[in-house]
Amino acid sequence: MFAEENGLHGDPRIKAISDAIRVVPHFPKPGIMFQDITTLLLDQKAFKYTVDIFVDRYKEKKISVVAGVEARGFIFGPPIALAIGAKFVPLRKPRKLPGEVISEAYVLEYGTDCLEMHVGAVQAGESVLIVDDLVATGGTLSAAIRLLGKELEVHCSSSSTIILDQINNIYIFEHVFLERVGADVVECACVIGLPQVKGNWTLNGVPLYVLVEPRLNDLGHFGDGGFV
Amino acid sequence: MSAGENGGSGGCINGIKSALRVIPNFPKPGIMFQDITTLLLDPKAFKDTIDLFVERYKDKDISVIVGIEARGFIFGPPIALAIGAKFVPLRKPKKLPGEVISEKYILEYGSDCLEMHVGAVESGDRALVVDDLVATGGTLCAAMNLLERAGAEVVECACVIEVPDLKGRERLRSHGKPLYVLVESQFEPNSQ
């Protein structure tokens, strides 16, 4: 849902945030009207409004983890995590995180990409908020949701059967039971989202909360539809 | 200087230091990788990290903080928000849309490049460069060059961790700029 549908209708901060975002036509390729949040980061008031709105929404929701999608999710996620007392977990492109990771592949327009998270960063049953700057197709966020809901903690219980054979060789059979549990992704929060996010639209069953729609371009003309 | 020399609260620093993790032989054999992700999993230690930087810079008239992709994006914005400064991301090539200026810098094998948006930083801006770690200082020097080309004055570079053996501090000193870090890394047998 959009912030304006959920108590922030007419809030002047929403317009300030939208106005601070710059549209760069035909980046990274022709037809895409790129929604550039770097100009929002240059506007101290508007950047603070952005973080404050998310913090107000999530501070009472007992969220213990904020997961941010590389790289622009690293800009918005940590200030929210710090304000609500949650851990911050970076979700990264392959081979950036050192140590043991779990991965989730997702489909792009041409080819595939992959998101990784550290093993042990998130515990089973923790409440998680995923943060990114923009949601378009939802492919990246869906991968993040699947990653967080994956096998995060493996509970092992075992029992052993010992058999002594006729010539006193000992055979030990271990029975290992694995239980896969995941985290609970409460919501995905993005600064910018396409209009289809209105209402109760969900991604893999997870609701989205978005502050503003993409602008078509800085001159107010209609662009040609792609938004990154 | 490091926070330990500057009267920074010993308890805070110890908490930050113990929250860091070292991963041997990443990304390649011989490198003891200083991993800050475990610091981010400790809300108190992460907050203390930011608070120490904010305490140092809040009265220094800093108008812009630049963060180096990608881990500088984690530490820079919270400091910027707290002191009322702009945040400017410095990125690898072709990530920033629109007009950019680029600065090439030398790596052990080959070179890399850092980009900044034209117009993000203006003449007269007082800038702080933020990254998670300083090793040789090559990336920080590239960042400072970009800022100076745009007409800003670099006040200081700030990192969570310094790897003293790699002499980044000396390199910054020869650029005429001070470095402020919170902790020095342990375990540097075969660093590169």
From TrEMBL, chain A:
Catalytic activity: AMP + diphosphate = 5-phospho-alpha-D-ribose 1-diphosphate + adenine
Domain annotation Phosphoribosyltransferase: ranges: 57-150
Principal subcellular localisation of the protein: cytoplasm
EC number: 2.4.2.7
UniProt keywords, alphabetically: Cytoplasm, Glycosyltransferase, Purine salvage, Transferase
A GO CC term attached to the entry: cytosol
Enzyme class: transferase
One GO process term, biological-process aspect: AMP salvage
Compartment annotation: Cytoplasm
Molecular-function GO terms, alphabetical: adenine phosphoribosyltransferase activity
Pfam families, alphabetized: Pribosyltran
Transmembrane parts of this sequence: none
Keyword Glycosyltransferase (UniProt): yes
Pathway(s) served: Purine metabolism; AMP biosynthesis via salvage pathway; AMP from adenine: step 1/1
InterPro entries listed in its UniProt record: Ade_phspho_trans (IPR005764), Adenine_PRTase (IPR050120), PRTase-like (IPR029057), PRTase_dom (IPR000836)
Subunit and interaction comment: Homodimer.
Similarity field: Belongs to the purine/pyrimidine phosphoribosyltransferase family.
HAMAP family, sorted: Aden_phosphoribosyltr
Protein's name in the database: adenine phosphoribosyltransferase
Organism: Cynara cardunculus var. scolymus
Record lineage: Eukaryota, Viridiplantae, Streptophyta, Embryophyta, Tracheophyta
